[in-house]
Automatic annotation (TrEMBL), chain A:
Keywords linked to the UniProt accession: Hydrolase, Membrane, Transmembrane, Transmembrane helix
Keyword hit for Transmembrane helix: yes
Annotated ranges, domain GAF: 298-437
Lineage, highest ranks first: Bacteria, Pseudomonadati, Bacteroidota, Cytophagia, Cytophagales
SMART domains: GAF, PP2C_SIG
Spans traversing the lipid bilayer: 40-60, 72-96, 116-134, 146-168, 174-193, 205-223, 243-270
Organism of origin: Chryseotalea sanaruensis
Pfam families membership: GAF, SpoIIE
Start and end residues of each PPM-type phosphatase domain: 464-685
Name of the featured protein: Protein-serine/threonine phosphatase
InterPro entries: Bact_Sigma-Reg (IPR052016), GAF (IPR003018), GAF-like_dom_sf (IPR029016), PPM-type-like_dom_sf (IPR036457), PPM-type_phosphatase-like_dom (IPR001932)
PANTHER family referenced in this protein's UniProt entry, alphabetically: STAGE II SPORULATION PROTEIN E (PTHR43156:SF2), STAGE II SPORULATION PROTEIN E-RELATED (PTHR43156)
Automatic annotation (TrEMBL), chain B:
UniProt GO MF annotations: anti-sigma factor antagonist activity
Species assigned in the record: Chryseotalea sanaruensis
Domain STAS: 2-112
Protein name as it appears in the record: Anti-sigma factor antagonist
SUPFAM superfamilies for this protein: SpoIIaa-like (SSF52091)
Pfam families on file: STAS
InterPro entries: Anti-sigma_ant, STAS_dom, STAS_dom_sf
Family of the protein in this entry: Belongs to the anti-sigma-factor antagonist family.
Length: 689, 112
């Protein structure tokens, strides 16, 4: 908004300055022609003209130089439009002149001077407009050196205004040198035509037309400004003469020079435009391939873009993209060629001892045209093939075909090979991203599994006057399937279970929940642990997949008879501390894990055991995560160490035994990140109080 | 990591397991046994003398073939296990379901 207001202000100022110029100039002219001493100083019009120039200079600086929205053609259009308006006004003045014929008015020197001033005002306006536009064009691709030269040029021109305003006689003799210098600098600056290259074909034509018209207008200025005022008329009295005004002259020369240069450069650039456009398209295509990964959802679109861009870049008549892989993932994308035709060529090349389309030991890209010539009935005479690598694996081949012999040049070869490489990178990125997503999903799944697993473990265990029962379970990052639980059968009997589901992750958590269901539904109604195991096996073989199994020990503690009955199904043996003998030992018994024998013969593989407990006996149940825990050196925690740890604290409460065991375990493994689940359940029998 | 070496002796496929079998390498074991069966071998000898560790997933592989082998009357004998590995088989009760021999000679005898 501020710029807009400023340009308006500057424009109004310019108009007023011009009016002031007309007034002072004409009054001086009038006075002198009437033999009177002019009331205003003779140097004033010159100064006002220069002020007018400076105001217009800044007007166009804001209007053109600072307006970022203008493109090259817009700039040329502005210059042309300003030129057009001036020409039309100038021509109208002429028309009036001719219409009025040789009347007194038209030949009156004041009228002549007035029209001269109008023309001068318009001319300065057009020249400054063009000057600013050309400045934008010249400085489109700037270097330090160019900016310095331009600043020198512009500053010098402004300074020359000062010179014109004052017109000291002692510098008058350098007039030609100063002008010559400006022309020379202008000439050097006119060599900067880089913007032309960025015009497309259409824009070049528009540019040519606009420039041609601008040149016509400039030409018109040259003609008219010379003939505007008849030589003989009051030349001596003229206060203002642009023909000796260094600023206007150098501006005129510079603007014309650059217009003509631009015109010629655009003209000669016309034939090569397509090449430049082609290069630009290559860059865009390249970007498309590399960005396709962010926008496209699948590899297929990357393949399609690769095919499309390669074809358009090298003007291939046909192409195919073969993606290697097993039967379903093997695909052939074609362009302007039937699948059969492509297959024929592939088979033919294979027959010609060209291993695959590409021999990986050879150059990356191969021209296979010589092999093609021996294929009868094919319309193609040139073929280029490119391998596509993803992580060093050749995942496919891109083949480009032309009907012309020797149809591909080195440049095309290079570009398409770059495309193929980029496509490979894009696909690789795509796959990495997929993988990362998959991992994220897996992690999320694990989190759920872990929550499920935690919620399956009992919040509270059964308690009894005859024994204390504690349990502990810590799962590794990867979810396992350790399970323990307790259930009161009746007043005297309590069922305990500890189990370990093979495998990890969601399936393990799922099987664990099945085990929990089985325990809660069967424990009450089973006549014996043996029976429990048999029925649990029958139930589990229906839902456990081949290769999965569950190891478990099921106990029934009878506080009336002081006996414990149990059956072990492939689980880690019980560690039992006998207070009478003061020794801890592992129970030696037999039993096959649940789910391993998938028929009723399982009964033969399960054994029921029984023992009588005494007060202060300790029973330690655990999963293999504990005995297989490894130290930094790779040593296992093992059965003997577990036994030893129990003996150290055998007289303490089960909570204390458990705490001691866990502390020892973590100290042994030397890390908090365990790789398997740690689960223990400790029972300590006590004297009934 | 597991490395599986196969060689044929007296019409039996002898498969030597070298290294450790965990959840990921158990797939290799599964593939190796499936391949051997696919090639038509009816006598499999599994050399476990260089097997350092086997996880439950690895045991699951042996387990999963028990029924199939019974139906197709394919014989499989494992031999040469170290104490730790043998213990793992024993705890799970797999020693009751699989034929396990001390050494190759005994294993061959068991093939009968």
């Amino acid at each position: 908004m501020r710029t807009k207001a400023l340009t308006r202000l500057l424009f109004t100022l310019a108009v007023f300055t011009w009016l002031a110029l007309v007034f002072t100039d004409l009054s001086i002219l009038f006075s002198t022609s009437n033999g009177l001493k002019p009331e205003v100083a003779t140097w004033l019009p010159r100064l006002i003209l220069n002020i007018y120039i400076v105001i217009l200079f800044y007007y166009y600086k804001f209007k053109i130089e600072r307006d970022e929205s203008l493109n090259f053609i817009d700039l040329l259009w502005r210059v042309f439009a300003t030129g057009l308006i001036s020409t039309v006004i100038s021509l109208l003045l002429r028309l009036v002149e001719t219409l009025l014929g040789g009347t007194k008015l038209t030949s009156h020197f004041l009228y002549i001077e007035f029209t001269y001033l109008i023309n001068l005002g318009l001319m300065v306006s057009v020249l400054l407009c063009a000057f600013m536009a050309w400045k934008r064009l010249i400085l489109y691709q700037k270097s330090k050196w160019l900016i310095r030269l331009w600043t020198f040029f512009e500053a010098g021109m402004i300074l020359s205004l000062l010179y014109n305003s004052l017109s000291y006689p002692f510098v008058q003799q350098y007039y030609e040198y100063v002008l010559g210098l400006f022309v020379f600098v202008g000439l050097v600056l006119s060599g900067n035509m880089k913007w032309v290259a960025y015009l497309n074909f259409r824009q070049k034509w528009t540019g040519l037309l606009l420039l041609l018209l601008t040149i016509f207008y400039l030409f018109y200025i040259f003609i008219t400004s010379g003939s505007l005022v008849p030589e003989d008329l009051l030349v001596s009295q003229r206060v203002i003469d642009h023909s000796v005004h260094i600023f206007i002259l150098s501006l005129m020369i510079f603007v014309s020079m650059y217009s003509i240069f631009s015109f010629l450069v655009i003209l000669f650039n016309l034939p090569t435009t397509s090449v430049f456009e082609q290069k630009l398209e290559e860059v865009v295509n390249f970007q498309r391939i590399s960005q396709s990964i962010q926008t496209e959802q699948n590899e297929e679109s990357v393949y399609n873009i690769l095919l499309e861009t390669s074809v358009s870049t090298v003007f291939a008549d046909a192409a195919w993209l073969e993606i290697n892989g097993s039967k379903e993932s093997h695909r052939l994308y074609t362009y302007e060629i039937s699948e059969k035709e492509a297959r024929d060529i592939i088979d033919h090349l294979a027959k010609q001892q060209v291993r695959g389309l590409l021999d990986q030991n050879q150059d990356k890209t191969r021209n296979l045209s010589k092999h093609l010539s021996s294929l009868r009935g094919s319309r193609f005479r040139s073929i280029l093939a490119y391998p596509i690598y993803v992580k060093g694996d050749n995942i496919g081949t891109l083949a480009l075909l032309k009907e012309l012999p020797e149809g591909f040049n080195k440049e095309m070869n290079k570009i398409v090979s770059t495309f193929a490489n980029q496509a490979g990178i894009s696909i690789e990125n795509f796959r990495l991203m997929e993988e990362a997503l998959q991992n994220e999903r897996y992690k999320e799944e694990l989190k759920i599994a872990k929550t499920v697993q935690k919620s399956l473990l009992p919040q509270q265990l059964e308690f009894d006057d005859h024994f204390d029962l504690v349990a502990f379970s810590e799962s590794a990052d990867e979810v396992g399937g350790d399970y323990y639980d307790s259930l009161r059968i009746n007043e005297h009997q309590t069922a305990l279970i500890i189990a370990d589901v093979s495998g990890k992750g969601t399936t393990a958590a799922f099987h664990m929940s099945q085990m929990k269901g089985i325990f809660h539904s069967l424990a009450q109604g089973c006549t014996s642990p043996e029976d429990f195991m048999f029925r649990a096996n029958q139930a589990l073989i229906r839902c456990l997949e081949r290769g999965s199994f569950i190891s478990a020990i099921f106990f029934v503690i009878d506080t009336e008879t002081k006996k414990v009955k149990y059956a072990r199904a492939g689980h880690c043996p019980v560690l039992y501390y006998n207070s009478l003998t003061d020794k801890a030992d592992y129970f030696k018994d037999k039993g096959v894990a649940l789910g391993m024998v998938r028929n009723k013969s399982y009964k033969e593989f399960i054994q029921q055991n029984e023992f009588t407990y005494a007060p202060n006996d300790v029973m330690v149940l655990y999963t293999d995560g504990i005995t297989e825990a490894k130290s930094v050196k790779g040593e296992q925690f093992g059965d003997d160490r577990l036994n030893q740890v129990l003996c150290e604290v055998k007289t303490l409460s089960p909570e204390q035994i458990q705490e001691h065991l866990i502390n020892r375990l973590y100290a042994f493994s030397g890390t908090d990140n365990i790789d398997d689940d740690y689960t223990t359940m400790i029972v300590k029998f006590k004297e009934r109080t | 990591m597991i490395h599986i070496k196969r060689l044929q002796e007296d019409g039996a496929d002898v498969m030597a397991l070298v290294g450790e079998i965990d959840a990921s390498s158990s797939i290799d074991l599964d593939l190796a046994i499936a391949k051997s069966v696919g090639e038509g071998f009816t006598k499999l000898l599994i050399d476990c003398s260089a097997l350092e560790y086997i996880s439950s997933a690895g045991l699951g592989v042996f387990m999963s073939y028990i029924e199939e082998f019974r139906e197709k009357s394919i014989q499989m004998v494992l031999f040469g296990m170290n104490e730790k590995v043998a213990n793992t088989f024993q705890i799970l009760g797999l020693n009751e379901l699989l034929k396990i021999a001390a050494d190759k000679a005994e294993a061959k005898k068991m093939l009968a």
